[in-house]
Amino acid sequence: MPTSLKDTVTLSNGVEMPWFGLGVFKVSEGDEVIQSVKAAIRNGYISIDTAAIYLNEEGVGQAIRESGVPREDLFITTKLWNTEQGYESTLEAFETSLNKLGLDYLDLYLIHWPGVDKYKETWKAFEKLYKDGRVRAIGVSNFHVHHLEDLIRDAEVKPMVNQVEFHPHLTQKELLAYCKKEGIQLEAWSPLKKGELLNEPVLEDIAVKYNKSVAQVILRWDLQHGIVTIPKSIKEHRIIENADVFDFELTAEDMEKIDGLNQNSRSGSDPDTMRVGF
């Protein structure tokens, strides 16, 4: 189990990925994202997760430069948007993201959504970027088991990460088991279900027991399931609080109680019906 923000999980290719990071979905470009990322790095975060569609890669890059932390000590993820899927367009989109971030390489590059018919072609471009040393690890986001099976069938390099919506109302047990079997690291976006879970009575009771917040209990639950997590906040005190999850451990009984909250309900789109930009 990780014991600090610096702790990492080893991906299938040997790359060390931090267990915990900062997500910047819906964080505005400019001062808001710059201050958010700088606050995270100042307080010990080394992993930052953005995406082309978030329209804040430039601010993330500026914050990295201004943080004073060497680039090689950080783990930076971005994602390819749906409109850019395809071989040549993926290679172009990668260069655009890298230029906006002001970086020489990425630590992790993800296909943001599977779509229907282009992700295998897109993956060929990802494999090229990986083999060329432009990105240290490649993966996908929002892929169901059937998408992964289809992709892996023709892939030379298996995805190292699958970043999906994952929280106590959407426990994705089949997907988690499949990813563990295939050596694909599962990563949780929207771990707090956009705040919807913060008033859940079962979680409130457990939080009182450990003298922690509901958010901290959920994030700890992620980690104990072996899932990388990237909560988002723009407030420094909340960024610090979110990361204060390494000094307690949920019992097996409490883990089961939280698992029992599953409703198979999403706050975001279903990957099988998500067609925006395709």
From TrEMBL:
<feature type="site" description="Lowers pKa of active site Tyr">
    <location>
        <position position="79"/>
    </location>
</feature>
<dbReference type="InterPro" id="IPR020471">
    <property type="entry name" value="AKR"/>
</dbReference>
<protein>
    <submittedName>
        <fullName>Aldo/keto reductase</fullName>
    </submittedName>
</protein>
<dbReference type="GO" id="GO:0016616">
    <property type="term" value="F:oxidoreductase activity, acting on the CH-OH group of donors, NAD or NADP as acceptor"/>
</dbReference>
<dbReference type="InterPro" id="IPR018170">
    <property type="entry name" value="Aldo/ket_reductase_CS"/>
</dbReference>
<feature type="domain" description="NADP-dependent oxidoreductase">
    <location>
        <begin position="29"/>
        <end position="262"/>
    </location>
</feature>
<feature type="active site" description="Proton donor">
    <location>
        <position position="54"/>
    </location>
</feature>
<comment type="similarity">
    <text>Belongs to the aldo/keto reductase family.</text>
</comment>
<dbReference type="InterPro" id="IPR023210">
    <property type="entry name" value="NADP_OxRdtase_dom"/>
</dbReference>
<keyword id="KW-0521">NADP</keyword>
<keyword id="KW-0560">Oxidoreductase</keyword>
<feature type="binding site">
    <location>
        <position position="112"/>
    </location>
    <ligand>
        <name>substrate</name>
    </ligand>
</feature>
<dbReference type="Pfam" id="PF00248">
    <property type="entry name" value="Aldo_ket_red"/>
</dbReference>
<dbReference type="InterPro" id="IPR036812">
    <property type="entry name" value="NAD(P)_OxRdtase_dom_sf"/>
</dbReference>
<dbReference type="InterPro" id="IPR044500">
    <property type="entry name" value="AKR5G"/>
</dbReference>
